[in-house]
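name: query_chain
kind: protein
chains: 1
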Amino acid sequence: MGELTTLISTRIPGAEVTPMAHYPDRKLGDTLGSKQFSMCFLDTTTNLDAALATITEVNKIGPSIPIVVLLGGNEPDLILRCLRQGATEFLIHPLSAEQLQPVLQRLDHQSSGGIGGGARIISVVPVKGACGASTIASNLAFQWKKVGIKRVLLADFDPAAGTLSFQLKLKSSYTFLDALSRSGNLDADLWRGLVVQCGGIDVLLSPENPMDANVELNDPADVLEFCRQIYDNITIDLPGAYSTWVLQVVRASDEVLLVTTNELPALRAAQRALNHFDRHGIDRSKIRLVINRFTPEVGLNQASIQTALHTEVFHMFPNEYDIVQRALVEGKPLAPITLLGKSMVALAEKISGVKVGGNAPEKKKATGLGALLASLTSRISS
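structure:
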């Protein structure tokens, strides 16, 4: 830590470094308080078990935060253990600017949308059954093409009650379970056999026969990382919030659409889901509350919902039940001329920041990790 702190302070003036003399003995978020950080350098030589536990804690706080592990030597087995735990890059003692530079360059490439960080993951989570989350996920996926997103994946990650195959009238011999079981050797040819094409997008289905609820699913990190490399957008249909599997996917997601209706039982379920995410360290800033089948005569209005849940309503869909049933019978997306279809387009525009038929928004100036890495790389290069 001393070598690294000296290296950063002398080679990169102005970079804010927060040294921690000990591994956190409680939740890292409590230790840091209100501090936010863009990357983490982690020593593994002092206490390996504590270091591996800290990798897990960092991933809970921010799955996108790069973790650079500091090693005492070139140890392939240890490197593999750290990678499986969630490490991003490695530095080997003795540390030097020449060793640090390529690491920062790779991280800069990833944070600006290069390999390993390109696709945006949008997960759709219902607060309870029959909220229409699967309908929203499937229809939203077809809107990305309209806002200029080319490579789109729609994934049904509900192992027990996935319905996208029924909604879209699709069949496949393979499911996301096959992708999980082959996560270590996925390639483009194998992937083409796992997905089915529908309306210009790839669809990864759930199993036809429901899985036993007690069966533990493999960590989706490797599959999602592979998908990030070959798609521009990944829309995932998830079951309810209360499983380790859902939490793993949600942590890896860029945005989470939490779907409810405005009826009181559903809003109570939404409150419980939000509290559940809070307890497990899911950042509220990436949760988008979506009200489906909004019916003013039955439940709360928008202002009352926001007050009750202490969360802004991101989007509201009108109640056009007959339109949805007609689309389900036909196995097609919602017609864009309907109110519900237009509302779906509006949601896609809101998430992407692009108007249908319009131009992409101006590229924003680098902030956060991108700006920091750009500064670090330029200073080290000089």
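note: The CA atoms of residues 349 and 355 lie 5 Å apart.
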